[in-house]
Design a protein that fits this description.
Blueprint: H1 2-30, E1 35-41, H2 60-68, E2 70-76, H3 82-91, H4 95-98, E3 107-108, H5 117-123, E4 127-131, E5 138-139, H6 156-161, E6 165-171, H7 187-196, H8 207-236, E7 243-249, H9 264-267, E8 271-274, E9 291-297, H10 300-308, E10 334-338, E11 349-353, E12 357-362, H11 374-377, H12 380-390, H13 396-399, E13 408-412, H14 430-446, H15 455-464, H16 469-472, H17 481-492, H18 499-505, H19 511-524, H20 532-538, H21 544-558, H22 561-577, H23 586-597
Parallel strand pairs: 1-6, 1-7, 2-9, 3-5, 4-6
Antiparallel strand pairs: 2-8, 7-8, 10-11, 11-12, 12-13
Helix pairs in contact: 7-8, 8-12, 17-19, 18-19, 19-21, 20-21, 21-22, 21-23, 22-23
Length: 603
Amino acid sequence: MYVFKLSGFRSFFAKFICVLIALLNHALAGSERPNILWITSEDNGAQWLSVYGSPNAKTPNLDRMAEEGFRYTHCFDNAAVCAPTRSLWITGVHAVSTGTEQMRSRYEIPHDLIPYWPDQIVKAGYLATNKHKTDYNIGGRADEDPWRGSRGKANWTSYRENQPFAAVMNITFSHESSLHPKKKQSQGLTDSYADRMVLHPYHPDLPAVRSSYSKYAQAVEKMDHRVGRILQELEENALAESTIVIYCSDHGGALPRGKRFLFNSGTHCPLIIRIPEKFRDWWPAEKPGMTVDRLVSFIDLPKTILSLTQAEIPPAMQGRIFLGDGIEPEPEYHFSYRGRADKGAVDMVRGVRDKEFLYIKNYMPWAPRGQYLPYMWEIEATSAWHDHYKAGQCSSLEARFFEPRVVDELYDHENDYHNINNLAAEPAQKARIERLRHELRQQQLANFDAGLIPEQMRKARAEAHGLTIYEMVRQPDLYPLERYLDYSDMVLAGDARNLPQLIEGAKDADPAIRYWSACGFAYLGVAAESADKEIETLTEEESIEVKIMALFALARSQGQTERVLKRYDALLLQAEQEGKVDQSDYISLIYSLQNLLTPDDLL
């Protein structure tokens, strides 16, 4: 009996060991983690790649990558311009949640609460490198800090010897500056390209516009060539079979009305992902070469990369994992935003879309989309377009860019890709626009939208309480977001019957409400002339942005443009004397309003 028991135990133990070894082998095989190569290009939206249907630029390398991988059809940037986009990329937190949606603002965030995604993969045993681009728009930490290398050429020897690795490689050829006069292309080639360019319907057919198109098409093709070279180097170094390659642009195209704007032209981005055979369990479709129609936002990318690399995901991260073992449910909506897109052009726009429709809300409808922005005006097409408008030669569609906006815009972006036909006032769309308005508000609340008070004011409020903007906007006593949303909606109704509420708001203890009251007076224009005393009082405000907006209201309601421009000049002189000329928040607001009051004399 004893011998029988022993032999039975030995048999059981042998089987147990075999099962354990099999499980360990399976675990070891499954534990191989991929390298990540994230290639980004600057300022080119999906509509500029031939694999996405571009008639202007040929991108054979990216076309081939799509054949070997998976092309996402519904990928969108959240911020529409570079520095705010890179802010959300490095943190996995929306730029409006951290207060970094304003271009080149570099406000601090609580770095102890919001680590960068490279920090997390380094902890997980990865080498993390970045070649050529940081620009995270965040203060309190050097952009190069989380990376082993952030300049120079790719070090393929280091990648071979330090696997697993995550490498970011940024390509600048297609950047907006490629359209500036100082960047010269071959004139003969430019001319031949110009003749065959297919223009977007909102751009006038002018020689200067065609020239800009042709320069840009060549820049995109040069970018594509660089992508091909990177993929070739990956192959030559025997790393292709162990590396997931992610390619995307950083936002939409560089031509005017692309980059910085929440239309498809500014936010619809290419996303192509190539996944080796050994990781085929992660293929998002049946086989390479297929498209994926999942709705993907740029906010999803950092969290997804951490999931693929088995790194810890910080609690502060937003977005949803869209690839790998940890896939989360597809979102129904995409959230986007625009703040000050550069010095001299203050704006506030919010958007939400599903797979069919895009809803845009303009919080500064008195300003045109085509506000004067010096960097954008260096493009030959922009100044030519504006001159064409001033000469009264634009069609109504072409002229729209330089004219005041409406508050609500609704576009069927599946059937109206260029977002031309605003359906917001259509009775048949009433239920849809109400649903999307509601969803936009929910997104603003869920993500603690920091933009409901002006830039200088919120910075000062956070500093006064020893907080970052991220922390401040999460305290309802310091940032009553629901109240601000309600009050701004009343302002944007543009209804003179709300004038008593605006007059009452002009006396409110909260300067943010007083600011929105000044905006309301300005939006009503001459319909607010009976509030002249309240407006005059606001022009003497201590809060600089309330003062600035109240002066604008004075010009619009009382016609005192000359007096207001003199006051603006005095404020700029004072800022210069105080050494604040390089501050780009309230000074940019003055520049914006000066240009609105003197549209034929751009600064």
